[in-house]
Structures are given as structure tokens and as C-alpha cells.
């Protein structure tokens, strides 16, 4: 009986741990990395009009979409005079691309323990189809790391810790 109970507890614990585990993924050959709860596959690389490299990754777990867009500035763009201002312009552009109709407003002043030069902003969005988004974007002057989570309908506060772990999971080289 004790063996059966121990086996059941171990199996339940293993399922819970696996369901909650974060895994680090390389973002193409940018040198950046990000932690995901699901496998986003390899980063898809494209280029912006100024020839900056853009990497995208996304996956779905528990009906929640976890994704990122990483912009590696072209050398011709560097040095960036106002990294946070440029990041905010990019976020405004993304709002149009993602058909965002509502925004809480940028919460500025976020810092990253692993990179003291980095600055971040957070926002809550709603798109034209009613999906709720929570985003966090980071810049160090060489990269923009845009992390996002969205779900059809409400994200729900029961997933907020998991979502926040993901949004804080971007790492610069």
C-alpha cells in the first residue's frame, strides 16, 4: 500500500513539474536566449527595411500563446541615441500589426538583473477579436526583446505567475 501511494505521489509530482518547467532556447544566431514553457521550434529570421535582423518564435500551451520578437539592430543603426524611445516606437508599430484596439499604457522603468544596461516596459492589450495580451519588451541599445502572451478571451489571474516568469525570460548576449 505504501509503495502504491508513493508511486501515485511521484507520478503526480512528475506531471506537475514537467508541466511547469521552463526551458532555455537560442534565438537564432543572435546570441540572445529566451525561456519557454513549450517548444517554439527554431527562430524564423527576416530583415527589416533598415536591414536589422528580426527573429520570431511562438508556441502554444494550455490555450495560451507564448511568443517573442527579437530585433538585432543593423550596425548602420548603431549607436541608438534613445533606446527606450525606439523600442516604444516599435511597440506602437506592433500594435497596428497585431490589430490591438485597447491598451492600458506603457509601464516604464523595468530593470533586468542579468543586464544593468537593459530597460523594459510592460503593457496589457486587447485585440479586435477580444484576445487579451500581456507584453513585456526589453532593450539594451543593441537589441529589442519583445515577449508576449495572448489568449482568446481572458488570460485569467490564475496563470499570472507563469506568464510573468515567461515575460521575464528574455536574455541578452
What structural keywords apply?
173 residues; alpha+beta; Protein Transport Mog1p, Chain A; 3 helices; globular; disordered N terminus; signal
Q: How would you sum up this structure, described in words?
A:
The protein is α+β, with helices and mostly antiparallel strands. It has one domain: Mog1/PsbP, alpha/beta/alpha sandwich (Protein Transport Mog1p, Chain A, 3-Layer(aba) Sandwich). The protein has three helices and eleven strands; from the N terminus they run αβββββαβββββαβ. The N and C termini lie far apart (52 Å). Residues 1-19 form the signal peptide. Keywords: Signal.
Which term fits the overall shape? globular
CATH superfamily: Mog1/PsbP, alpha/beta/alpha sandwich
Instruction: Count helical runs.
Output: 3
Count of domain modules: 1
How are the SSEs placed, and which strands pair?
Blueprint: H1 2-20, E1 23-26, E2 33-36, E3 44-47, E4 53-61, E5 64-72, H2 83-97, E6 100-103, E7 107-112, E8 115-127, E9 132-139, E10 143-151, H3 160-167, E11 170-171
Antiparallel strand pairs: 1-2, 2-11, 3-4, 4-5, 5-10, 6-8, 7-8, 8-9, 9-10
Provide a concise account of the structure shown.
Helix content is 24%, strand content 42%. The chain is of the alpha+beta class and 173 residues long.
Amino acid at each position: 500500500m505504501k509503495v502504491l501511494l508513493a508511486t501515485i505521489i511521484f507520478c503526480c509530482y512528475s506531471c506537475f513539474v514537467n508541466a511547469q518547467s521552463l526551458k532555455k532556447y537560442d534565438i537564432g544566431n543572435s546570441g540572445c536566449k529566451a525561456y519557454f514553457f513549450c517548444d517554439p521550434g527554431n527562430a524564423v529570421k527576416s530583415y527589416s527595411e533598415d536591414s536589422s535582423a528580426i527573429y520570431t518564435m511562438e508556441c502554444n500551451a494550455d490555450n495560451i500563446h507564448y511568443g517573442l520578437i527579437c530585433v538585432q539592430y543593423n550596425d548602420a543603426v548603431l549607436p541608438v541615441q534613445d533606446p527606450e524611445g525606439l523600442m516604444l516606437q516599435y511597440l506602437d508599430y506592433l500594435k497596428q500589426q497585431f490589430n490591438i484596439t485597447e491598451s492600458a499604457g506603457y509601464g516604464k522603468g523595468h530593470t533586468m538583473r542579468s543586464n544593468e544596461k537593459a530597460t523594459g516596459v510592460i503593457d496589457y492589450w486587447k485585440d479586435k477579436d477580444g484576445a487579451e495580451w500581456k507584453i513585456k519588451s526589453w532593450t539594451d541599445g543593441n537589441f529589442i526583446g519583445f515577449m508576449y502572451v495572448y489568449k482568446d478571451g481572458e488570460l485569467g489571474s490564475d496563470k499570472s505567475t507563469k506568464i510573468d516568469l515567461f515575460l521575464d525570460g528574455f536574455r541578452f548576449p
